[in-house]
Amino acid sequence: MSREHINNAVQICHSLLASCIHGDEDIVDATAGNGHDMLYAAGLTSGRIYGFDIQEKAVSATRELLQRHGLLSDRVRLVCESHTEMDKHVVSPVKAVLFNLGYLPGGDKTITTAASTTLSGLGCALRLLSPGGMVFIVVYRGHPHGEKEYEALRDFCAALPQKQYNVAFCSFPNQAGKPPLLFVIEFRNNGAAAPDLG
Ligand SMILES: C[S@@+](CC[C@H](N)C(=O)[O-])C[C@H]1O[C@@H](n2cnc3c(N)ncnc32)[C@H](O)[C@@H]1O
Question: Ligand 1 centre from 176 Cα, in Å?
């Protein structure tokens, strides 16, 4: 059986996502971008797939990619809005939420995710998670907002109550430069209600 290498935050995110989806759970892609993560997610489940992006260009690219792969159907909901509005559109619990932060590859590099909206979107994501559900956050430190976003996420994740959440952080200590990093948050399946994180 082949497996992915461990040198890339997105690949590790995809492997963990595959291990948490069993066939029909709902998934949210909080930053649809060019649609690659959403395409991967759509291939894992027969459940609903939600995609959010603030750029119409990204929503169109995602729609086209899913269409090209025969995965654009009623179960796909693409929304050109910030992930801070996620809970207006996602009404029932989801098994996983993906955040692949930064700017749209091939697009305007000045339009990026930002620490305050990312934390607000993450708060929505945690409220929507079903027990055992997971949030994946790939963060890029190599652009001006990225370092601040990373620090805000590190502090937010460190403050999550351990009784309700498992948190993991994946870095690549022997890689040159500033490779993307991965935070993973798991809502522990211990029967406790999700805490109010404000
Ligand atoms: C690195 S790209 C995402 C890559 C994408 N998941 C893929 O597989 O191609 C980051 C995206 O986040 C989007 N974005 C920035 N701020 C956002 C926000 N507040 N809500 C939703 N999307 C946002 C950008 O427009 C950009 O398309």
Answer: 25
Residue 162 in contact with residue 124, Cβ under 8 Å? Answer: no
Among residues 125, 130, 128, 144, the alpha carbon closest in space to that of 183 is found at 125
Domain-by-domain residue ranges, the chain? 9-187
Quick one: how far is CA 141 from the chain centroid?
Answer: 17
**Which atom of ligand 1 approaches the CA of 82 most closely?**
20
What is the CATH number that goes with domain 9-187? 3.40.50.150
Q: Best substitution site from 29, 36, 53 to test ligand 1's pocket, by max atoms within 8 Å of Cβ?
A: 53
Evaluate if pTM is beyond 0.85.
yes
Residue ranges of E strands in the chain: 27-29, 49-52, 76-79, 94-100, 129-139, 165-170, 181-187
Read off the pLDDT of residues 112-145 as tens digits, 9 standing for 90 and up.
Answer: 999 999 999 999 999 999 999 999 999 999 988 8
CB-based contact 39:16 (threshold 8 Å):
no
